[in-house]
Write a structure and sequence with these properties.
single chain; 387 residues; alpha/beta; seven-stranded mixed beta sheet
Length: 387
């Protein structure tokens, strides 16, 4: 007999049915929320991708525009230049010296310095050319960018290094003993690169060249160059800007004296050029060091420029540069350049102290010591020995 106290309360069944019916309603709401969140996430991702793609397109357009300002040489000869057709100097090499150099070239275990997956080598040339002549390479610096070690090695080659001019590419000095600086006068950057390969087993495929006199405009576009100077270096700058050649070439340029105090100075374009060409104090050895310091300081200041000034610097500098680097390679390096600003700069010189002799005002290096040391600085590993 049913217990009257256990009878179901009124409405209990309807409540049960409502709760049961509510479960799918909640599931549907959760499902809709998930779908909404996924749609919102998808739209956000699409917008981000779209913004990135538009940004890349704009940057690509900007890079293309700037690279179009460069003088890119696709031919193997700079036909607009006039090359020397007669020996610039008569260099007589003693037979014993010639035999020693030939022996080093043929027998020394010189490591091959060339481009690799991690390393890109570029030869920077600054010439003293006037008008349409090729001119001497007043400064020769091998720039080696190592993406693995995060280092950029700057190696200056002394102007007076004794070299034998190769047979190819053809020049009027083929087979002659010459100073390295003369190679450019006889055959431009391509003969200079071939001469490095012939004499030091350094295979450089790419170069960038600027005339020293364009350097003045470049420094001014940066807003000047901050350099630590000694009292002697200040004296030279103030004196050399009145050199007959400098006065003739830069007659239009206002000549300002550097304040006579040792320390940090902001140099204008003409003052910076005088400093870069100074080989009276410490001879050519000290000058190559000054030039490497100038390049490092220019790189440091460039990364700190406001965008508007950096854009002006590019518009000024790029038309002054001649290079044989393909546009696509240059574009790739532009994309990597932000990282380059964080790299360590390493300065060195060919030849190293104590690794050369001088023969009639020409420098004859110990090839194996110098090439081995340069290889290890560039690649960050021991130089391989030829078999």
């Amino acid at each position: 007999m049913p217990n009257p106290n256990m009878s179901p309360q009124k409405g209990a069944g309807s409540a049960h049915r409502t709760a049961s019916a509510g479960k799918p309603v909640k599931k549907n709401l959760r499902k809709k929320k998930r779908i909404g969140a996924l749609v919102a996430l998808g739209i956000t991702a699409f917008l981000i991708i779209a913004v990135v793609l538009v940004g890349i397109h704009l940057v690509n357009s900007f890079v293309d525009e700037k690279l179009g300002l460069l003088n890119i040489q696709t031919d193997t000869h700079e036909t607009e230049e006039v090359f020397a057709t007669a020996p610039l100097t008569e260099i007589e090499v003693p037979e014993t010296v010639e035999e020693d150099i030939h022996g080093q070239l043929n027998e020394a275990n010189l490591p091959l310095i060339c481009d690799t997956k991690d390393v890109k080598n570029i030869l920077l040339l600054a010439t003293d050319a006037r008008w349409n002549e090729a001119g001497l390479s007043d400064s020769m610096i091998l720039v080696s960018i190592n993406q693995k070690t995060k280092k950029i090695v700057l190696c200056s080659f002394m102007r007076d290094l004794l070299v034998k001019i190769p047979q190819e590419p053809h020049s009027s000095a083929a087979g002659n003993w010459e100073k390295l600086t003369h190679a450019h006068a006889y055959g431009g950057p391509h003969l200079t690169m071939a001469t490095l390969k012939e004499n030091y087993n350094i295979q450089v495929d790419y170069y960038a060249k600027i005339n020293f006199y364009s350097f003045v405009e470049l420094v001014d576009a940066m807003g000047g160059l901050d350099m630590e100077l000694t009292a002697d270096e200040i004296w030279f700058i103030n004196d050399f800007m009145y050199d007959e050649e400098m006065v003739q070439i830069f007659s239009y340029y206002p000549k300002k004296q550097v304040e006579n105090r040792a320390g940090l100075h902001k140099l204008d374009g003409l003052q910076a050029l005088c400093h870069a060409r100074n080989r009276r104090i410490g001879s050519d050895w000290a000058r190559t060091q000054r030039q490497r310091l100038i390049i490092a300081q220019m790189a440091k200041q460039a990364k700190e420029l406001p965008l508007a000034q950096l854009n002006n610097l590019l518009d000024t500098a790029l038309p002054m540069i001649t290079t044989n680097m393909p546009a696509e390679l240059l574009k790739g390096m532009v994309w990597d350049s932000i990282g380059y600003f964080q790299y360590e700069f390493v300065n060195t010189r060919m030849p190293l102290d104590g690794t050369f002799t001088e023969v009639r005002y020409n420098i004859v290096p110990d090839l194996e010591k110098n090439c081995t040391d340069l290889y290890e600085k560039i690649y960050g590993e021991p130089a391989p020995k030829a078999q």
